[in-house]
Specification:
The protein is mainly alpha-helical. The chain is built from 8 helices and 3 strands, in the order E-H-E-E-H-H-H-H-H-H-H. It is globular. Its EC number is 2.5.1.18.
Length: about 210
């Protein structure tokens, strides 16, 4: 019987941001980032989203619902997965950081990363012209930044209307609420990222003193 895979997701399931850089999580992932998984069926611990996606598809996607069978198609799929890992993910993240979370407004950084977001969306817009969906393209979840890109926006709406997506987001919202966390991941009584950093530092200092 196949056992459930254990998933570590920062702020959502089993670990908080301040725990990512300390034991026991750091023993599983020396990079101190989430997500990470542990599959008891194969005795495998794995981190990095792209590696996790590739593993899950290869290990459990035997019916090729979100993957391909020929070498050419597999390599093209990997190409788009790496595009997400090296392009869409980092650029979207930096755009969000400098627009919302950074302690000071840096117009040059905001302009740069917003420009990269538009460039990435343009690449996806072209890719979605008559394309089929596979796990690599699915990993490029574009979110609400897709205004002005017709195919990307339509694809985003199809993705978010799927029952499985709705269930996942409801679970995420419930688990974050149980931890007293809004969408930013910071506690409800913390008003800024700087204040949150101070809080994390204080907790780490308290833990060090206890040891």
């Amino acid at each position: 019987m196949t056992k459930h895979i254990e998933v570590w997701m920062a702020q959502i399931v089993s670990i908080k941001l301040e725990e990512l850089k300390s034991e026991p999580f750091i023993n599983f992932n020396p990079n101190g980032r989430a997500p990470a998984i542990r599959d008891p069926n194969t005795d495998l611990v794995l981190w990095e989203s792209g590696a996790i996606i590739s593993y899950l598809v290869e290990q459990y996607g035997t019916e090729h619902v979100k993957s391909y069978e020929t070498s050419k198609e597999k390599q093209h799929c990997n190409q788009w997965l790496y595009f997400q890992m090296g392009g869409q993910g980092p650029y979207f993240g930096q755009a969000g950081w400098f627009t919302v979370l950074h302690h000071e407004k840096l117009p040059s950084a905001i302009e740069r990363y917003r420009g990269e977001v538009k460039r990435i969306l343009g690449v996806l817009e072209k890719r979605l012209e008559g394309s089929t969906m596979a796990h690599a393209v699915t990993s490029c979840q574009p979110d609400e930044k897709s205004e002005g890109f017709v195919r990307v926006k339509a694809w985003y709406e199809r993705m978010t209307s799927r029952p499985s997506m709705g269930e996942a987001m409801e679970t995420r919202a419930r688990l974050m609420d149980e931890q007293g966390l809004p969408w930013t991941g910071m506690p409800n009584d913390v008003e800024s990222l700087a204040e949150y950093r101070e809080l994390i530092g204080a907790k780490k200092g308290a833990c060090s003193e206890e040891r």
